[in-house]
């Protein structure tokens, strides 16, 4: 099992090093995001906004970059095979669903961690803020966000397998939609009341709130918020595992898997 799992990690690694543009997801886009959002927040402080606003926004920007890379890894585990018309080979290999999820998940977690460290160091030197002061709460918050991203990625994979590769745009669209309801750049309390109910069902909302509460820039009990984030993330994961297994079964029955 361990070798089969590592095979998925190695496949993602080969795809990345053979296509330099793929490296930009770790070494370019995160820096663009943190700088653009960070300097915007600093501008607002220069015209009278409180300093906490900068920290609030930077926490959201760094955390959501972590989410995006984590989700992308689990979805690219399938889409790359479809683009290269070799998905059927993966399905007839000794590899199992657990190997696919574990291998691609590990690659996503490792990639996200590298980006987090690099962007975190940049934040210290250029923006005067260290995300690492979050300590254990930073680790727990990112862990729950990773589980949630993994779950959403598996749900997207279900749609791609059962509906076709035309739904691959969900890989990028879903992250933006979830970001709106998670309070990445603003408190969810400013959203319309109906939208706030959606926010309360997302573990990312609680993960961000817990980390911000620990940093003293948001209200709430950090430990309780992180605990809720983990509970919701695990619930999403259980549903996603069931749905993804169903997608693989339907794909084999309908012959969709053999098209790629």
Written as H for each helix and E for each strand, in order along the chain, the element string is HHHHHHHHHHH
Quaternary structure classification:
single chain
> Biggest sheet: strands, sense, closure?
none
- What percent of residues are in strands? under 5%
Q: How would the global form be characterised? A: globular
User: How many beta-strand runs?
Assistant: 0
In angstroms, what is the radius of gyration?
A: 19 Å
Total domain units: 1
- What separation lies between the terminal Cα atoms? 25 Å
Average pLDDT metric: 85
> What structural class do the secondary elements suggest?
mainly alpha
> How many separate helices?
11
List the uncertain runs.
none
Percent of residues in helices: over 70%
In short:
This protein has 260 residues and is mainly α.
Please tell me about this protein's structure.
By secondary structure, the protein is mostly helical. The chain has one domain. It is 80% helix and 0% strand. The chain is globular, with a radius of gyration of 19 Å.
Structural topology:
Layout: H1 2-18, H2 20-27, H3 29-46, H4 51-83, H5 87-92, H6 97-127, H7 135-163, H8 170-182, H9 193-200, H10 203-214, H11 222-254
Helix pairs in contact: 1-2, 1-6, 3-4, 3-6, 4-6, 4-7, 4-8, 7-10, 7-11, 10-11
């Amino acid at each position: 099992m361990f070798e089969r799992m590592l095979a998925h990690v190695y496949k993602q690694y080969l795809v990345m090093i053979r296509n330099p543009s793929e490296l930009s997801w770790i070494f370019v886009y995160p820096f663009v995001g943190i700088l653009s959002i960070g300097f915007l927040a600093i501008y607002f402080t220069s015209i009278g906004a409180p300093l906490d606003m900068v920290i609030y926004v930077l926490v959201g920007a760094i955390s959501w970059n972590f989410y995006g890379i984590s989700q992308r890894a689990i979805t690219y585990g399938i889409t790359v095979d479809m683009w290269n018309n070799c998905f059927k080979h993966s399905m007839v290999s000794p590899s199992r669903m657990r190997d696919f999820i574990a291998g691609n998940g590990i690659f996503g977690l490792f990639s996200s961690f590298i980006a987090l460290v690099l962007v975190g160091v940049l934040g210290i030197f250029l923006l005067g803020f260290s995300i690492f002061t979050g300590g254990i709460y930073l680790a727990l918050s990112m862990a729950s966000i990773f589980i949630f991203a993994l779950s959403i990625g598996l749900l997207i994979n279900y749609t791609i397998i059962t509906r076709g590769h035309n739904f691959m745009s969900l890989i990028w669209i879903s992250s933006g939609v979830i970001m709106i309801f998670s309070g990445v750049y603003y408190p969810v309390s400013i959203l319309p009341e109906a939208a706030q109910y959606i926010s309360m069902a997302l573990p990312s909302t609680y993960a961000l709130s817990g980390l911000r509460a620990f940093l003293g820039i948001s209200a709430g009990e950090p430990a309780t918020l992180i605990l809720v984030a983990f509970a919701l993330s695990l619930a999403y994961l259980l549903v996603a595992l069931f749905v993804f297994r169903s997608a693989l079964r339907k794909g084999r029955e309908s012959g969709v898997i053999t098209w790629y």
